[in-house]
Design the sequence.
């Protein structure tokens, strides 16, 4: 009796084990594949090796110097049209005064290249995106000019092209009716260089530092490890790639 | 052309009526001027508008958002008749659905024509980013259109009678989700102090009810004039007067709670002071435009006893027009006012820059963007007029009463 019972049970047990193996394959395989791809996936993902970032040492920044702004304008051909409210400013010097102490600091603010960027979240067409190395860019062929990203950016880093533009730089295809912002000079970075603002600053007091935040041996990572640095509006948890020393 | 659903007789707009032609051409002209204004903006770039890198959304968005919010509320009358089974509302269900479609089309037309690259509209279909509440709204808008058209079909075709209640319920549920989505465009925004709040979605829901009903009443009263029919019936008139007062009251309640909550929190107090007291334009538009003209007076006008049906209709019409005007005032303060208050990069600090950091931004709307906004009303009116001309949507009798 017991023998016949065991025999009748055996095939179904085998089937169960086979099913279990199949189920495990189906559920685990995508995870394994995703894990394998993780290194090329978005900023902050486990295993990512590069996150480009900047460090601005406010104590070193000359309050009256605007070399970084000039360098950016030259690099991207940003010219004013005599209309300050619509003219593009990808980087600007901001003056911040503490009302209690009266202490004033002046330093540059640009796109903060957040890993959890509100502009990327809100963009209806996915034109705003995070590169795997942390740089936030806009695909101008997908941008429809809704300006939701401008509304959503807590750093006021985005601009809208309000007029016809000619003689664009080949690496910055700016166009009327689309949004734009600091690209962290991605064309230079991809060629092994540094952003124009950082390069210009290096000729002065060298208050700006560019590098790989994830490389513990990089100058920027070492400085961040050694000194107190801060992100603007860190309370919003957007995790900017631009940090400030002395803020 | 006349058809009937249940015992109610319906007819189309009279083709020989001069007034109808004037309405058609008038709405067409307003829509056309709006289109020309959009082409002018498109050709020159947005610098010809008052919108800047600081006040990013302006007058077109004020009108667009008003129309989109009102459109869902305009469906109220149909929903009350079918979902909540209040028969006096039922003869006007078709008109309610059509008005909802018209207002929605008007609002969307403005939004699309204001885009920097309207020619890339297809991108909304080919490249949707599902983390964007804006992209989700594209689904909500198109779904609303589809469901209201289906709902109208079930109202107009007796063979579809079995789907009438489900369609009504689906459209009602969808309009609640859609308005929540519209509110969430702002409610989810962490960057600007005036917006980020869970209260914005229910606030928009409340506003949609009052704005939409007011728009619907105006359409109904206009049709009374143009068709010579006694719209609305005395029973419906009585109900509409009470309903408008209640919905306006609920809207006012949510607006008060929204501002009070923000004012109570130290972090938001500056923006509230700015909107409520410091900036003359916004304070005036909010207190007088929305508060008194758009809320308190319409409530009084709606509820005050009237001796004749005629005077009650006039009072209701004036009250509705005031609700619409007040609604536009509210939207202006909400959108433009919220943007004019500086983005707080360094809360509690005194900030300045060449990029208007730390200072309130002055927005002066230009004529083209104003015309584009008004053009949205033209599109809405045009669609409603053409719809009424083509399909039997106007009740000739109120037999269900």
Sequence:
């Amino acid at each position: 009796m017991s023998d016949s019972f065991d025999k009748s049970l055996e095939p179904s047990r085998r089937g169960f084990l086979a099913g279990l193996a199949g189920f495990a394959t189906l559920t685990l395989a995508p995870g394994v594949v995703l894990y394998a791809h993780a290194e090329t996936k978005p900023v902050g993902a486990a295993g990512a090796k590069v996150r480009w970032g900047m460090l601005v040492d406010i104590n070193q920044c000359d309050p009256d110097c605007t070399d970084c702004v000039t360098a950016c304008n030259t690099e991207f051909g940003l010219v004013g049209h005599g209309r300050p409210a619509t003219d593009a400013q990808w980087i600007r010097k901001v003056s911040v005064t503490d009302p209690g102490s009266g202490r004033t600091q002046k330093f540059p603010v640009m796109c903060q290249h957040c890993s959890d960027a509100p502009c990327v979240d809100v963009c209806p067409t996915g034109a705003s995106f995070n590169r795997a190395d942390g740089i936030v860019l806009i695909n101008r062929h997908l941008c429809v000019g809704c300006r939701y990203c401008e509304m959503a950016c807590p750093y006021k880093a985005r601009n809208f092209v309000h007029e016809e533009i000619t003689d664009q730089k080949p690496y910055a295809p700016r166009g009327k009716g689309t949004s734009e912002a600091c690209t962290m000079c991605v064309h230079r970075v991809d060629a092994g260089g540094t952003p124009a603002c950082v390069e210009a600053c290096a000729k002065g007091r060298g208050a700006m530092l560019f590098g790989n935040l994830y490389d513990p041996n990089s100058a920027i990572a070492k400085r961040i490890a050694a000194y107190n640095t801060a992100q603007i509006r860190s309370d919003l948890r957007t995790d900017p790639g631009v940090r400030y020393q002395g803020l | 052309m006349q058809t009937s659903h249940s015992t109610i007789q319906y007819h189309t707009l009279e083709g020989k009526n001069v007034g109808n032609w004037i309405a058609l051409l008038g709405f067409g002209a307003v829509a056309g001027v709006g289109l020309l204004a959009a082409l002018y903006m498109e050709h020159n770039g947005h610098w010809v508008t008052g919108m800047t890198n600081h006040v990013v959304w302006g007058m077109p968005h004020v009108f667009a958002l008003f129309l989109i919010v009102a459109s869902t509320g305009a469906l109220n009358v149909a929903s009350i008749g079918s979902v909540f089974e209040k028969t006096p509302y039922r003869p006007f269900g078709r008109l309610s659905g059509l008005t909802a479609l018209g207002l929605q089309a008007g609002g969307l037309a403005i939004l699309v024509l204001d885009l920097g690259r309207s020619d890339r509209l297809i991108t909304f279909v080919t490249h949707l980013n599902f983390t964007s509440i804006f992209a989700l709204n594209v689904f909500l808008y198109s779904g609303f259109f589809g469901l209201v058209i289906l709902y109208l079909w079930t109202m107009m075709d007796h063979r579809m009678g079995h789907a009438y209640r489900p369609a009504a319920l689906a459209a009602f549920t969808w309009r609640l989700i859609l308005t929540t989505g519209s509110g969430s465009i702002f409610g989810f925004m962490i960057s600007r102090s005036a917006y980020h709040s869970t209260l914005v979605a229910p606030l928009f829901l409340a506003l949609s009810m009052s704005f939409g009903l007011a728009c619907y009443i105006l359409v109904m009263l206009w049709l009374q004039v143009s068709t010579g029919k006694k719209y609305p019936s005395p029973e419906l008139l009585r109900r509409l007067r009470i309903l408008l007062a209640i919905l306006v009251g609920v809207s006012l309640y949510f607006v008060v709670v929204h501002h009070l909550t923000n004012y109570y929190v130290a972090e938001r107090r500056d923006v509230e002071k700015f909107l409520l007291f410091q900036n003359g334009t916004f304070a005036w538009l909010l207190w007088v435009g929305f508060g008194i003209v758009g809320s308190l007076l319409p409530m009084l006008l709606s509820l005050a006893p009237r001796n004749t049906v005629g005077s009650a209709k006039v009072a209701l019409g004036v009250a509705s027009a005031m609700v619409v005007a007040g609604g536009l005032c509210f939207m202006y303060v909400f959108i433009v006012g919220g943007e004019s208050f500086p983005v707080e990069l360094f809360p509690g600090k005194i900030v300045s820059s060449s990029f208007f950091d730390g200072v309130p931004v002055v927005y002066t709307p230009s004529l083209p963007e104003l015309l584009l906004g008004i053009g949205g009303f033209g599109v809405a009116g045009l669609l409603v007029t053409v719809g009424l001309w083509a399909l039997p949507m106007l009740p000739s009798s109120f037999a269900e009463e």
Observations:
- The two ends of chain A are 83 Å apart (CA to CA).
- The domain at 52-245 of chain A is CATH 3.30.70.20 (Alpha-Beta Plaits).
- Chain A touches chain B through 54 residues (CB under 8 Å).
- Residues 140 and 173 of chain A are 8 Å apart (CA to CA).
